[in-house]
Amino acid sequence: MLERYAFEGGRLVPREDGDGVLLYVAPTDEERLYLVNERGIDPHDLASALDPDELGRVELDGPKATLIIKQPRNYASEDQLLFTVASVGLFLEPKRLIVVAPEPLELFADKMVRKVNNPRDALLKVLYSSIAHFLGHLKVINMISEALEKRINASMGNKYLLDMFTLEKSLVYYVNGIGSNQMVLEKIRVSAPKLKLTAAQREILEDIVIENSQCSKQADIYSNILTGLMDARGSVVNNNLSMLMKKLTVISVVFMPMNVIAGMGGMSEFSGWTKGVSPWLSYPAFLAGICALGYVTYIVLKKWDAGASDYQLPRGRRKRTR
């Protein structure tokens, strides 16, 4: 699918006859042949723009430049908390910018590069839009991580823990993608004279480099925190399970003596033992007796557990020093 944009009044305006920026989204075979034969794009570079595993790079060929950058994919519910990245190809020509992307992406949604008068301004706009997209996804990942952390604290299963592993994998993709973009930006900064960037465009490029560096640090922090706390959160799940087993064990121990006494002779034997006594008196008395036994057992277990938890190691004597 082809989207055309034109430069009008310092803005990118969608136009059917626009030739300033050409955005190819998941190009068909016919569009690929057109890009290779008519626009002179190298087939390898075109394939790299649609390969999600391709690393970012910059290639200069006189007045033309080929850039491969990383961009977050649009998240969908079927992804199950897995955030991945895609490659985007930027082919800069003297009078136009050709963008090749595997899926619809928000390439011109940033607010930093407001005036777009030529293809180089459009290139900077796309670069900053990629950073803004990464930052937005990092905020979402952080919010999901905090929500999962609260659920893990009260959970005894592995579902939420596996979701945390998925987020950790997503952050690995993002750290690599942002780091790859950083190398591309550094190469563009060095090659600014060859790309004929103006002084104003170089200032914007410096801001973009700083923004991407901060984005990279933020992704590293989130990744390190998530990785460092995975073992602790796994221990929380195990501790929750141990607490549940402890409660079930206490319940079984409380009912154990009651079951023993109730099953010693059965109802027929108990009727023989209480022969001559009204059943309306004997059975309620028996029920009250085993309930009292269960209550006493519970009190004993509770005091024993309290004594074990309050136990402290004896403190050694402190030596006085002069």
Structural account:
The protein folds into 2 domains: 2-238, 2-Layer Sandwich (Beta Polymerase, domain 2), CATH 3.30.460.20; 241-308. Helices cover 59% and strands 13% of the residues. It has helices at residues 29-37, 43-49, 119-153, 159-190, 192-195, 199-262, 266-273, 279-309, and strands spanning 2-8, 11-14, 21-25, 57-61, 64-72, 85-92, 97-101. A 7-stranded mixed β-sheet has the order 2-1-3-7-6-5-4, sandwiched between helices. α3 (119-153) packs antiparallel against α4 (159-190), α4 runs antiparallel to α6 (199-262) and α6 (199-262) packs across α8. The longest helix is centred in the last third of the chain and has 64 residues, at 199-262. The radius of gyration is 35 Å and the shape is rod-shaped.
> N-to-C terminal Cα separation, in Å?
85 Å
Examine the coordinates and then state which fold CATH places here, giving the name of the CATH topology of the largest domain. Answer: Beta Polymerase, domain 2
The number of E-state strands comes to 7
Shape, per Cα inertia axes? rod-shaped
What are the defining features of this structure?
single chain; 322 residues; alpha+beta; Beta Polymerase, domain 2; 8 helices; 13% strand; rod-shaped
Task: Reconstruct the topology from this structure.
Blueprint lengths: L1 E7 L2 E4 L6 E5 L3 H9 L5 H7 L7 E5 L2 E9 L12 E8 L4 E5 L17 H35 L5 H32 L1 H4 L3 H64 L3 H8 L5 H31 L13
Parallel strand pairs: 3-7
Antiparallel strand pairs: 1-2, 1-3, 4-5, 5-6, 6-7
Helix pairs in contact: 3-4, 3-6, 4-6, 6-8
